[in-house]
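BUG: 3D viewer hangs when loading the predicted structure for this chain

Environment: internal workstation, default settings.
Expected: structure renders.
Actual: progress bar stalls at 90%.

Input used:
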Amino acid sequence: MGHLELAVLGLACCLAVVSAATLGVVPTEGGFVEGVNKKLGLFGIGGRSVDIFKGIPFAAPPKVLEKPQPHPGWQGTLKAKDFKQECLQAPLIPLNTKGSEDCLYLNIWVPQGQKEVSQNLPVMIWIYGGGFYSGSAEEKSFFNQYLHDGEEIATRGNVIVVTFNYRLGALGFLSTGDANLPGNYGLWDQHMAIAWVKRNIAAFGGDPGNITIFGQSAGGASVSLQVLSPYNKGLIRRAISQSGSAVASWAIQRDPLRWAKQIAKKVGCPQDDTARMAKCLKATEPRALALAHKINPFGMASDVVVLVPVIDGDFIPDEPINLFANTADIDYIAGTNNMDAHFLVRLFVPAVDIDLLTITGSARTYTYLFSKPSRKPFYPSWVGADHAEDVPYVFGRPFATPLSYRAQDRTVSQAMIAYWTNFARTGDPNQGHMAVPTQWEPYTQENGNYLEINNKMDGQSMKQHLRSSYLQYWTQTYQALPTVNEDEAGPVPALDDAEAVP
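Structure tokens produced before the viewer hung:
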């Protein structure tokens, strides 16, 4: 046998070993699913790969303004090879809608080794942000790139990553404030996805007893609300909230009927009786509902993010601050960016997300400040990490698109993936599959520990009492401000088309 034949035979044997470590067809409660196996490195030499499943339904196509229902299942094998459309939503310039009503699908990334398929891996479920009115599981960007592609975090951290869609805007959060239209349909979608993963992830090589949910902005607030809800008791082991929590001022709508009436007026539904209003709204064409509320980013903060979760007495049975006993056994990471919402700062004042950390229970809690300077070319040099600028680093975009990033960006991404996935594996961000640049000490009310995350991390990155002087100043200033009651202020004018920003 010649040298060429030997080389070909050796390569074939190598590839045969690689191809053995793949899940193939996987049984789920709805039926069989088949994804794709992607080799890592040149021809997969080295033996590592990732199984990717896209577009698995975790619930039936939803009915308008109704809770999600279980999927009836399918015949044969579902080819789970393409992302599904995002949930129906109106963009900031609402000339039309995008997305689909039929959107309750999830995606799974499973890292594989050289010989045997993975088993009992930690599971990380991502909840995207977008103010509860926009966003998607995959978040498509330029040149068919996907911000929430789970490949890098899954393969580097050796964890299973899951992303999913949930309903947004009016279709996800419209409420009359009573039993006729209780709202929180988007939160119920999130719960259905988490529960589906709990029941089915073992077949994909995941550990159903080790599920971490993580999310940013509205996704971070959603993470917080999900662990507070009694419906998720026993489903979630750990949680990570990035730039959002249930106690943020924008996370709960306390006057939902006001906005329901405005939308009802726009689509021609009754406004004087919530039962008749709800019946009419449910019969309204969904795209008309999605377009009925136009966001005015230049209005008051209370008018920007308004179609959001409500205290419904059911999924969220009480004020979030009264529900933290439900999180006593859940390990938690929560943090913010050093210039979070620089682009829209009034929306986040006077919310202080650090409040979440002072009222979590007896489980381990860690907090951080992400301070990698902004990469936006139109920002001045003094701008630090703006809102959502941490997300590409968590998802390993500096590795996936190396020409768009510098070496220091990959250093930050490597550190964040290490901390996040170690935490998902052990409850301790320092211990797990990956080495970390410095020790991250837990937070307590007494020590106020937090880790500053950037591209220059060392023993000095552990700090204490995040922005305590600012917190003290604004607390005193806010309390000293004169109050104006509603009668003196007069009625709040409705936002009509002429006032809205198109």
